[in-house]
Amino acid sequence: MQVLIEIFRNIGIRDILDMAIVAFVFYKLYMLIRETRAEQLIKGILVLLFATQLSEWFQLHAINWILRNTMTVGLIALLIVFQPELRRALEYIGRTKFLTKSIVDIEHEEIKVMVEEIIEAVGSLSRQKIGALLVLEKNTGLNEVVETGTPLNAQISRGLLINIFMPNTPLHDGAVVIRKTKILAAGCFLPLTDNNHLSKELGTRHRAGIGMTERSDAIVVIVSEETGAISVADNGKLTRFLDLNALNALLTNGFKPDENKQWQFLKLKWRHKK
Q1: What are the chain's domains?
Q2: Cα separation, 216 vs 121, whole angstroms
Q3: Is the model's pTM score more than 0.85?
Q4: C-beta of residue 177 within 8 angstroms of C-beta of residue 185
């Protein structure tokens, strides 16, 4: 007790301010990464650190050596694997949103922009009966598909999407790959589905969309050139004849960041009471 009392006696205003700043920074960092893959990454690192310390305490030399070397090589590998997330986090901090918003909040905004631009473009293409194939990347990287097309790395916009799929243009015959608010490439080739039980009415565009979702967690939006009908392929399944409202709901739900369902229920319940 005397040691604790002595510590508290020696704490000054500067020490309190120092601890408050550190606590605030850690809190904002947590808010920045909450409900993202980075949160799970940190949990995994903490488990490895704890296991490493346990192996040292119990003198499990072989396990300790493996864990220590894994941590050394693994940290470098993680920086490479999570390079997009780290870059985005630094961009958010640079845009001064670090103090007000988390990655999940900003992801909501990006998804809203992406869905709005796609809805407008798909609606126009459908009315003109212009065929289109849009691959929307989720967690599985699609660099192999991007490499088969023409790199664009352009900000998503309805005008650009419509222009890409206009007949007789160089990039219209292929798929567009979209990552959040970026059009990565156009004129990309997709793998065809191996499913032999599909309707014979479905052409190459629909079969390519289904095949893409069988090999990744991407969502593919398809506009039929013959009828202008809008379809969505997801998880190897095709949903056809969608209107723009149904497409909006499907894309919004498909890209919604993971959140605590119980917390969502409490928020809805509170809103109803209010």
Answers
A1: 2-102 (no CATH), 105-254 (3.40.1700.10)
A2: 24
A3: no
A4: yes
